[in-house]
Design brief:
Strand content: 5-15%
Number of helices: 9
Oligomer: single chain
Number of strands: 4
Strand order of the largest sheet: 1-4
Order of helices and strands: HEHHHHEEHEHHH
Helix content: 40-55%
Largest sheet: 2 strands, parallel
C-alpha cells in the first residue's frame, strides 16, 4: 500500500482480510474505521485444525519449514497439538509481531503485556463483534454503516469434522489459550 500512488489510494474504500493490521490507516490521508470479529478461542483452535486437515497438501507445499508432519497419517490432533493450541487472536491483533518474530507459533510466549497491548488496540476499533453472534452483530454493523447488501452467515465453514471434541479436550485447549480467552 505504501508504494501505491496517492490517486490509487484515494480510490480505496475498504481494505479487508485476515492480515489487515492496526496501523494501516497511516498509509492513507483520510480517517479510517477498524472492524473485526473475534472468535471463541476453543472453537478457533478446533476450526484451525480442521482447516489444516482440509488444506494439508497446499499448506505443506507453501510452508514446508513450519514443523508440519510430512505424512497425512501423522495428522492426529495430539501430534499437531503444539501447532494449534496456542493463543492466536492476540498475535493477530498485534499484527503477528511478537518478541521480534512474525507469525503465530508455539515458540512465542504470549504474555500479559501482549494481552494488554491487544486490548488497547481493540479499544481503538470502531466495532468489535463476535463470530458466535455474527448474524446479530453484522446486522447492527451493516445498519450503522448504511450497508444494504450483505452477508448474513459466516463464510469458509468446514463441512466435514475430523476431530471428536469432548469436554476433556475442550478443557485442555482452554488451559493452553487462557490469554485469548481473556481477550475474547
Amino acid at each position: 500500500i505504501h508504494s501505491l500512488p496517492a490517486s490509487v489510494k484515494d480510490g480505496i474504500q475498504v481494505v479487508f482480510g485476515h492480515s489487515v493490521y492496526y496501523g494501516i490507516h497511516e498509509h492513507f490521508s483520510r480517517p479510517a474505521r477498524y472492524i473485526t470479529f473475534l472468535r471463541e478461542p476453543v472453537s478457533q483452535v478446533i476450526s484451525h485444525y480442521e482447516y489444516f486437515l482440509h488444506h494439508y497438501d497446499s499448506l505443506i507445499a507453501d510452508q514446508p519449514s513450519r514443523g508440519y508432519p510430512k505424512d497425512k497419517s501423522e495428522l492426529t490432533f495430539d501430534r499437531c497439538r503444539p501447532l494449534f493450541t496456542v493463543n492466536m487472536q492476540i498475535p493477530t491483533v498485534l499484527n503477528y509481531a511478537i518478541n521480534g518474530r512474525i507469525g503465530v507459533n508455539g515458540d512465542v510466549d504470549i504474555n500479559e503485556a501482549h494481552l494488554e497491548r491487544a486490548k488497547q488496540i481493540l479499544d481503538k476499533y470502531y466495532f468489535v463483534g463476535l463470530l458466535e453472534s455474527f448474524e446479530e452483530d453484522s446486522l447492527f454493523l451493516y445498519d450503522e454503516l448504511g450497508i444494504r447488501r450483505f452477508i448474513r452467515k459466516p463464510q469458509n465453514v468446514a463441512r466435514k469434522k475430523h476431530l471428536h471434541v469432548d469436554e476433556v479436550l475442550k478443557q485442555e485447549i482452554r488451559s493452553a489459550v487462557t490469554l485469548d480467552l481473556r481477550l475474547y
